[in-house]
Amino acid sequence: MSRSQGESGGAPAGADTVAGDAGKPAYVVHVVDDDEAVRRSLALLLTSFGYVSTTYASAEALLAAADRLAPGCLIVDVRMPGMDGLALQAELAARGVPHPVIVVTGHADVPLAVRAMKAGAVDLIEKPYSGEDIMRAVRAALTRMEDVRQQQSTAEAASARIAALTPREHDVLLLLVEGRPNKAIAHELGISPRTVEIHRANVMEKLACHSLAEVVRIALAAGIVPKVPLG
């Protein structure tokens, strides 16, 4: 069933949502195409496979909702009035929108494919396409989205643990990640080696780590980059 996003509550106006199987993961396939018949056809196809879809008649309509897009992926037509599909890809990337993009075109060629892939497309599908072509690409795109969300979740959890450290413990952590031994850390911070050991033990406990390797993994997941190469 298709309904206006305004009626479904909290989603962008001017887009249509088609609900699929409630048993599927909470992902939405965002379809961007200026051809209403194509939008309806893709929405019905996605519904038949149990996916939820939202359709947009232009790249500009999608961008108007870009800051509140439900997690999922995009199916984007290359040739559209106004902003085309590749320009939309570039703009989404510039805004940090993580949704994988599937590009659909009736004019596939090598330069176009290269541009699409460089812009982060998971697939480029040439018209006429089969339903299986679309679904294979959607499955790949949503797998990538799941990977992105897991990485984000890991990063958030790591950052939350690190936020519990005191400023001095954080200083010790940074030097540990750089591979500094306790004596070097003590010299760098102007404290005793014994104090470094205490801070190091506190870091291990607060990060719930049993080895220095685990500490390093959590720090890297949180975006801490050592000033000197590890190893």
TrEMBL record:
GO terms for biological process: phosphorelay signal transduction system; regulation of DNA-templated transcription. Pfam families: GerE, Response_reg. PROSITE patterns: HTH_LUXR_1 (PS00622), HTH_LUXR_2 (PS50043), RESPONSE_REGULATORY (PS50110). One of its GO terms (molecular function) is DNA binding. InterPro entries: CheY-like_superfamily (IPR011006), Sig_transdc_resp-reg_C-effctor (IPR016032), Sig_transdc_resp-reg_receiver (IPR001789), Tscrpt_reg_LuxR_C (IPR000792), WH-like_DNA-bd_sf (IPR036388). Keywords: DNA-binding, Phosphoprotein, Transcription, Transcription regulation, Two-component regulatory system. The modification 4-aspartylphosphate is found at D77. Residues 158-223 form the HTH luxR-type domain. The keyword Glycosyltransferase does not apply. Residues 28-142 form the Response regulatory domain. PANTHER family: DNA-BINDING TRANSCRIPTIONAL ACTIVATOR DEVR_DOSR (PTHR44688:SF16). This is Response regulator transcription factor.
